[in-house]
Amino acid sequence: MNSKFAGAALALLLSAGVFNPAPARAEVGEVILAQQFGIIFTPLMVMESQKMIEKQAAARGMPDLKVTWSRLAGPAVMVDAMLSGSLHYSSQGVPSMMLMWDRTRGNIGVRAISAINDSPIYLNTRNPNIKSLKDFTDKDRIAIPSIKVSSQAIYLHMAAEKAFGPGKHTQLDHLVVALSHPDAVAAVMNPSGEINSHFATSPFHEVEVKAGFKTILSSYEAIGGQSTILTFVTTDKFRRENPKVHEIVKAAFDEAMEYTNADLRRAVQVYIDVSKDKKSTVDELYAIVTQPGFAFSKKPSTIGAFAEFMHRTGLIKNKPASWTDMFFEEAHAAGGN
After folding, report:
1. Do 192 and 127 meet the contact criterion of CB atoms below 8 Å apart?
2. Strands 122-125, 214-218: parallel, antiparallel or unpaired by DSSP?
3. Label partner for 33 (CA 20 to 30 A): which of 1, 42, 93, 155?
4. Is 65 helix (H, G, I), strand (E, B) or coil?
5. Pick from 214, 187, 9, 43: which is nearest to 130 by CA?
6. Cβ burial, residue 229 (10 Å; 0-12/13-18/19+)
7. Which residues contact 125 (CB under 8 A, 6 or more apart)?
8. Are 151 and 302 in contact (CB under 8 A)?
9. Contact 55, 41 (CB under 8 A)
């Protein structure tokens, strides 16, 4: 190729952008996060109320980053929002996180950044005739946050399999009703209402116990030990396209977990302020978060047990080789199972 032709070819390629570096893609100007209801979400309420993302953004050269928080009724709504791209970070129970991981492998890639909380949840009833799962009849109704995708749904399946036998894990599904925890408490407190049972997190569980409800099952009994109930989740796509924003959010999350564990009494006061909980006192909530089996912890626990059950019963198609498959690399150092 003569030099004149080579020069013309090079100019044509440059004008077409072949040798020009692609323009840097601007990171998002707004980060959207969601949480649900209950004291297990305290670290996220700390992040929100103490404006930790905003502070981290200002310190890292993004003072104009807009932060939007939403409270959603249950994991099913969060799943839809995350898959549509209208939500960047969410607080998901382990089952709904796994369902998104299973569905999005090879595309947007949903995974957990960290565990947030270990906490038992409790199946309570006002029906005095119910002493075990086998006592539920077609006249009873059980409130859970979301059908099929909530932690409560999977714990109920695990417990039903133990009570009724292999292949009978859906035995009680026709009795289940989807309600947020605040709405569920209101429903079960109505003595003439159809819904008479609730698979409740704290402090809704304690409100029902105070009202004389009986607890017939705990999640720890269903799964066989202390268990992660909540994870902090995003997509590989968002993390990859917005590395600086992700670094900001992750730093704020770490700060919030440290703030929460440094002074649990202070943290539950934040929960009361943000949630506007008028039924619980600081002392009552402090007793909840300091009880054995309750922990604000980044260490994933019993993730493998969830995965095995959900794969065996057909809820997820792909069985992870390890819990680490469903968590980003920064979570792996925490250990887990």
Report:
1. no
2. antiparallel
3. 155
4. coil
5. 214
6. buried
7. 140, 196, 197, 198, 213, 214, 216
8. no
9. no
Q: Tens of pLDDT along 250-296?
A: 999 999 999 999 999 999 999 999 999 888 999 999 999 999 999 99
Domain boundaries, the chain: 30-118+227-334, 122-223
Burial class (CB in 10 A: 0-12, 13-18, 19+), 238: buried
For residue 205, which amino acid is it?
H
Amino acid identity for residue 186 in this structure: A
Nearest to 120 by CA among 262, 282, 230, 263: 230
From the CB of residue 220, how many other CB atoms can be counted at a distance below 10 Å?
A: 18
| Preceding amide of 203 cis, omega within 30 | yes
* Assigned CATH topology for domain 30-118+227-334: D-Maltodextrin-Binding Protein; domain 2 (3.40.190)
- Alpha helix (H) residue ranges in 140-235: 151-164, 181-188, 204-210, 219-223
pLDDT of 71:
80
CB atoms within 10 A of CB 194: 11
Query: How many other C-beta atoms can be found within 10 angstroms of the C-beta atom of residue 57?
Result: 24
Phi (first) and psi of residue 53, to 5 degrees: -65, -45
Measure Cα distances from 83 to 87, 89, 154, 238, 328 in Å: 8, 11, 21, 11, 18
Reduce the DSSP state of residue 49 to 3 states and report it: helix
Residues listed for the chain = 337
Per-residue 3-state assignment (H helix, E strand, C coil) for 83-103: HHCCCCEEEECHHHHHHHHHH
What gap in Å lies between CA 138 and CA 141, rounded to an integer? 8
pLDDT at 77: 78
Q: How do residues 310-331 score in pLDDT, each as one tens digit? A: 999 999 999 999 999 999 999 9
